[in-house]
Amino acid sequence: MAPNSELKNLIAQFSSVPKVSGVDLTGRNVIVTGGSGGLGLESALVFAKLNPARLIITARSLESGGKAVEQIFKATGYRCETWVLNLMDLKSVEAFATKAKTELERLDVLLSNAGVAATQYIVSAHGYESGCQVNNISNSLLCLLLLPLLIQTATLPPPIGSKSPKFTPRITIVSSVLHYKVKTLPVLGAGEEGRTLELMSEKKRFSNDTYQDTKAINLLNAQTLISLLPPVKDGNPTVLINTVDPGFCDTGILRTASGFFRIGVAIATALVARTAEAGARNLVYASLKETSQGAYIATCKEQEAGDFVIGEKGRQVGAMIWEEMKSIWMKEGIVYLFM
Which among 140, 236, 256, 287 could bridge 172 via Cys, Cβ 3.0 to 4.6 Å? Predict the structure, then answer.
């Protein structure tokens, strides 16, 4: 059984999160989704200091992304780029991936950080609740569409001048410790096949539990992505895919909360929240260190994921959700390499 408890989580909040050192990104390309603020911006600030060839942060508008670019430049002297990505729109995801595959000869790190912790019921144009749309349907599509570029990167020689020649291209997906508390997903997953996300998106089911369900799906989708990779050679994966929990951080992700919930969030933030910079150290660790394939990272250490996620029932539900997402992508006419 995965070791997890409220006390363990509280203690972890006060644990020291080490800074990552000894990694050089010279000649390598990095994409950080949701890089205009919070954990994404703090992660990008670290990457900028490691001399990447190109560092691309995504934002929902060029204006917000441009402000982050200037902030990073003032802090590090490195001029990164901002590309528009709206995860509520699958066509935006497709356009972003096409641009990346056209402009980039290599992609060494995809930090899939952008996400929402919805406190209000909002439905995308595709008919899905915003958490399901952003955290799962769109994020998984982006990873899938960029996976061939990451695989291609693994066949390339180390960049000239790199001080870290042995570096595995990777996808790091930001999840949450709350995936241990998944409640609704196991019940819905036991129902009608192919409708889990559809059922999760019904207004009557919307609650604070929705977020933890989407974070559990992050881990399940990571395992499916791993299954699509070429066979391992010499014990080394072609592309490393892991998930990470930043901990409870003061990032403003729950800024739309209201009522007593908002008061509770404010009190918890004041008492136990990590800074965004400290939380981002977990993301940077998972993005740069050679972890185990499929590792779940928390406090810069590999941890055992939740029982549902690693169990047979979770694998079955994960496979059903992936098939459901494929039908959603295909309905939008989006073509991808892996079926």
Answer: 287
In degrees, rounded to 5, the angle at the alpha carbon of residue 39 between the alpha carbons of residues 174 and 227 is 20
Alpha carbon distance 171, 174 (integer Å): 10
* pLDDT tens-digit readout, 98-141: 999 999 999 999 999 999 988 899 999 999 999 999 999 999 99
Predicted confidence band at 338 (pLDDT cuts at 50, 70, 90)? low
Please report, for the chain, the start and end positions of each structural domain, with discontinuous segments joined by +: 6-11+20-331
Does the pLDDT of residue 63 top 80, yes or no? yes
Phi, psi of 6 (to 5 degrees): -60, -40
User: d(Cα 272, Cα 275) in Å, to the nearest integer?
Assistant: 10
Token couple for 20: 């990552």
How far is it, in rounded angstroms, from Cα 133 to Cα 137? 5
What's the whole-model pTM score? 0.92
Cβ-Cβ contacts under 8 Å for 266 (sequence gap 6 or more):
none
CA distance 219 to 149: 22
3-state SS record for the chain: CCCCCHHHHHHHHCCCCCCCCCCCCECCEEEECCCCCHHHHHHHHHHHCCCECEEEEEECCHHHHHHHHHHHHHHHCCCCEEEECCCCCHHHHHHHHHHHHHHCCCCCEEEECCCCCCCCCCECCCCCEHHHHHHHHHHHHHHHHHHHHHHHHHCCCCCCCCCCCCCCCEEEEECCHHHHHCCHHHHHHCCCCCCHHHHHCCHHHCCCHHHHHHHHHHHHHHHHHHHCCCCCECCECCCEEEEEECCCEECCCCCCCCHHHHHHHHHHHHHHCEEHHHHHHHHHHHHHCCCCCCCEEECCEEECCCHHHHCHHHHHHHHHHHHHHHHHHHHCCCCCCCC
Fold classified for 6-11+20-331: Rossmann fold (3.40.50)
> What gap in Å lies between CA 14 and CA 34, rounded to an integer?
25
